[in-house]
Amino acid sequence: MSILDKFRLDGRVVIVTGASSGLGVAFAKAAAEAGADVVLAARRVDKLAQTAELIDSVGGRSITVATDVVDPDQCTAMVEAAVKEFGKVDILINNAGVGTAYPATRETPEQFRSVIDINLNGSYWAAQACGRVMAPGSSIVNISSILGLTTAGLPQAAYSASKAAIIGLTRDLAQQWGARKGIRVNAIAPGFFQSEMTDSYQPGYLDSMAPRMILGRKGDAEELAATAIWLASDAGGYVTGQTIAVDGGITIT
């Protein structure tokens, strides 16, 4: 096996949650290009169909599964659909999430809990469902955020708390499932990439963050997806329990 072969995912089955838009689409496309069969999961089924067409265009195979990760039963059904269609689950890219920006003195309990329920609890239910069926050598890639590591001038208490918690969740699942199950669990902490979340930022916000971007630009979704493929593949076979910041240097400024 050559060094480049270690990045291939031929014969693997990848579940991507939040695959209906933005970074989830990039993760799904990258997995298909690396040779994997892809299970596309999200709440917006119409958008999933568009992602499935993209997978077809690069020669990949996929199925779509309507999934709200807040519901553990739907996460179980997602995994069952994957096993029924492809026979197994090798990789989970745990991407489903939302972001809000409410000032801490005005955020309601419902608003705070909703973010925690989707970003943190949903990541756990998806990982739990996959962990029950994954064989040794499998991999989970959780999607955290640089806001789990630093601040960025936005009122995002719920989002930051959820993404910091995912880092802790990643360490614990890596410890629990490493030796016993042979499952690696890592996280990515993205900086600023084009997505529905960044589209909702107030005008001028990203420009104001430019001095903290050592590389002087926003990230490209393919750069983030490449990191996920590395962590999911044999190329990352000795990496577990880690959070990799893919942020152009923001977290060191």
TrEMBL record:
It comes from the Bacteria. SUPFAM superfamilies: NAD(P)-binding Rossmann-fold domains. InterPro entries: KR_dom, NAD(P)-bd_dom_sf, Sc_DH/Rdtase_CS, SDR_fam. Residues 12-191 form the Ketoreductase domain. Pfam families: adh_short_C2. PROSITE patterns: ADH_SHORT (PS00061). Belongs to the short-chain dehydrogenases/reductases (SDR) family. This is SDR family oxidoreductase. The lineage of its organism: Bacteria, Bacillati, Actinomycetota, Actinomycetes, Mycobacteriales.
